[in-house]
Design a protein that fits this description.
The chain has about 280 residues and is of the alpha/beta class. It has one domain: 2-enoyl-CoA Hydratase, Chain A, domain 1 (Alpha-Beta Complex), CATH 3.90.226. Helix content is about 50%, strand content about 15%. It is built from 14 helices and ten strands. The strands form two sheets. It has a six-stranded mixed sheet with strand order 1-2-3-5-7-10, with helices on both faces. Helix 3 packs across helix 4, helix 3 runs antiparallel to helix 14 and helix 4 packs antiparallel against helix 13. It is globular and about 60 Å long.
């Protein structure tokens, strides 16, 4: 039995590079793509995306990971059913807070190098892993957006820990506070991703990079990742506070208007009165 058999929302495949090395391909949203839908993180998907990196770290048969989305996009954000459950149920909110924390730290602490291949919409929990990947690659036409403020909660999961480091504080505030989308091409220009390529070349490019990582010195590559990710670990307290503020927002009124406006396909009408 494979250590990955328990995963329901992720399609996980090992690709042999040679007799001694392998690349693990992790695909989000396969079942949703088969139904013509974008990958969204429901209760199961959110939990599994936070957990899988520990299994990957313990897997001696792989040297690199490629993370991508199935169908029309990389990831479409949180399932509205999950968001409503978080807003209405403290136990769900507490559980998902822990998963959101674990997702960030588990990606950072996974010793295997991770390559992400983002196309179409890249939002939500998938975007967390996509941008925290060691080598994030985007299709030039990808649509990257952190949708938190549009939903009525603080941009809390990965944004505060890595966006200012990658693209600077001014750009981070512009895109995060205004919930402004950017293309993969713009993301490369700003330094948010390592490479932008034509969508038709995206998967091949991701595997090309991952193959090079598998063929290199594993101690050198993994220790380099560990050392560089200390920049992110230093921002741990900032991330922790941002995540707490995000989840405080899930107990407030604005998130209900945010969800309703998404469902009704209209602009949100948030209450301008604020207790802060």
């Amino acid at each position: 039995m494979s250590r990955y058999d328990r995963y329901q929302s992720l399609a996980i495949t090992r690709h042999a590079v040679d007799g001694k090395r392998g690349i693990l391909e992790v695909v989000m949203g396969g079942a949703q793509a088969d139904a013509g839908k974008l990958a969204t993180a429901d209760h199961t998907g959110h939990k599994e995306l936070s957990m899988v990196w520990r299994d990957i770290g313990d897997d001696p048969d792989i040297q690199a990971v490629v993370l991508r989305g199935a169908g029309k996009g990389f990831s479409a954000g949180g399932d509205f059913g999950l968001v409503e459950d978080m807003a209405n149920d403290f136990a769900v909110r507490a559980r998902v807070w822990k998963e959101a924390r674990d997702l960030v730290y588990n990606v950072i602490n996974c010793d295997k190098p991770i390559v992400s291949a983002m196309h179409g919409p890249a939002v939500g929990a998938g975007l967390v892993a996509g941008l925290l990947a060691d080598i994030p690659i985007a299709a030039r036409t990808a649509k990257i957006v952190d949708g938190h403020t549009r939903l009525g909660v603080a941009a809390g999961d990965h944004a505060a820990i890595i966006w200012p480091l990658l693209c600077g504080m001014a750009k981070a505030k512009y895109y995060l506070m205004l919930c402004e989308p950017m293309s993969g091409e713009e993301a490369e220009r700003l330094g948010l991703v390592a490479l932008a390529v034509d969508e038709a070349e995206l998967r091949d490019k991701a595997f090309e990079v991952a193959t090079r990582l598998t063929m290199g010195s594993q101690t050198a590559i993994r220790w380099t990742k560990y050392a560089l990710n200390n920049w992110l670990r230093m921002m741990g307290p900032t991330f922790d506070s941002s995540l707490a503020l995000e989840f405080m927002g899930f107990s407030g009124p604005d998130v209900h208007e945010g969800v309703a406006s998404h469902r009704e396909r209209r602009k949100p009408d948030f209450n301008p009165d604020c207790p802060l």
